[in-house]
User: Fold these one by one.
Assistant:
Number 1:
Amino acid sequence: MATRYYFDIRNGEQLYADKQGIELRDEETAAHEAMQSLLSIAKENPPLDKHSLLAFEVRTDEGPLFQVSLSLGITRR
């Protein structure tokens, strides 16, 4: 039986709640989906002048499970 997973997006201090979610087979599949989606977002929207933390806070209807995060930045010399 599939479980509905929600992928809330954290961009720095802002949190954008996923109101729809997606049904997936298990938590491992949800972690893989979160990582692939996070890498895709980072590729499409790279930071220009500052460091940025992007993350998915993954949860089910029963509560939070885990966070997948990626820290990006450019350090100028």
Number 2:
Amino acid sequence: MKQDIHPGYGWVVFRDASADVAFLTRSTLAADNPGNPGRPEKTVAWADGNTYPVVDVEISSASHPFYTGNARVVDTAGRVEKFNRRYGRQDRSTR
């Protein structure tokens, strides 16, 4: 097996600003390796007293509608009828 081909793996805080939630996990983003996108420049002090690199994300499981249960149900039958009324399309069974 080849040696030294895997990126480093360390602790990183992912922060979702829209839900005001942050979580600490391990990621390859914590390593400074060639070919790696790079260690995040921002840091944050965590509850355990240590400082970790932080990555700001726009959406996470705390704010995504699928996980929060706030998904909207779309009335597809109403949309089809609205389309038919708007463009003057008639029901084919009446022809």
Number 3:
Amino acid sequence: MIKQNKLAPGRSYLAIPGPSVMPDAVLSAMHRAAPNIYEGELVEMMPALAADLKRVARTDRHVAMYISNGHGAWEAALSNVIAPGDRVLVLATGRFGHGWAEMATGLGAEVDILDFGRNAPVDLAQVAERLKADSGHQIKAVMAVHVDTSSSVRNDVPGLRRLLDEAGHPALLMADCIASLGCERFEMDAWGVDVMVTASQKGLMVPPGMAFVFFNDRAEEARARLPRVSRYWDWSPRAHAQEFYQYHGGTAPTHHLYGLRAALDIIHKEGIEQVWQRHETLARAVWAACEAWSAEGSLRFNIEDRALRSHAVTALRLQAPHATDLRDWVQGNLGLTLGVGLGMALPGEPAWHGFFRLGHMGHVNGHMIMGLLGGIEAGLSALKIDHGPGALQAAAEVIGGA
């Protein structure tokens, strides 16, 4: 049995790809008595809150808010544009593409899946062929995950819009940005995305419990053509609220709203372009360390091509059972929690213990990333897992040169 060094007391570090680390300002904003939901500060702050959310998404169109996790955002988005029997095309590059497809199936849609595996992005050529074959325009929506949190691949969303335009295809382009909004460059209007979904617990740095659906006028027209929409999921009263209760279909998630207000203030003070740049630099530091470790032993990236990797999460492979051993060691000894290899193998299978993920999203900075990497280095050394030298130096050089 490995001796526990008892270095875990102190502030723990949750380095999983969401829920992400929450700023003290967000926690402080939420630590208050219940507010009045009929008049006063909370009611008055909603128009500006919605406007600042749209600034992060880079859209001047519409946003609907839900008391929900990301799965609820999936269902809300689909419920407003897809009727039972409609056909959708889902582009899967990991577990979460399949999850959105399952939600569409549950709503009665006819679901076609192009599965590109767990370590590759969407192949635009295959998508172009599928759109070309749909001469009757049966496909009502093309659904893709911008960053799949399980595989850490980043997909070419503007490339999908280009394909739709070149094919003259009227399908809506729907993007899941749950893992990417507030971390990766995303330009909803400029990229021609019709519907985008996200949630509060990753780049927005707020506890799980709120979800958001952004949509443009094309999507709003699609909603108007549906014979019915669930009263609760209907985005119209939420996006065009005349009274406060309509923003959330009833009682508001009061304390989440205060936390979100604080988080948006942090994002806009830094500036969204700088937020994207910070995430890109910190991701490169993580990659530099992992590349050094991978020079010896079995550590490998799930996504080999840097240009295809997320700036918010890095998925890694390590010969089983070493990935689980490493996660257990750093959590027990250092108070550092790494992410499991979600969707890469079934829990209970031996292969499941050969994957882990590093979250570097939201409220993270250089010394936090260096601490994360130093903890992993300590774990690799303590467990005598083969790895190459120079990882921390490589990461420091990236951060030092930023």
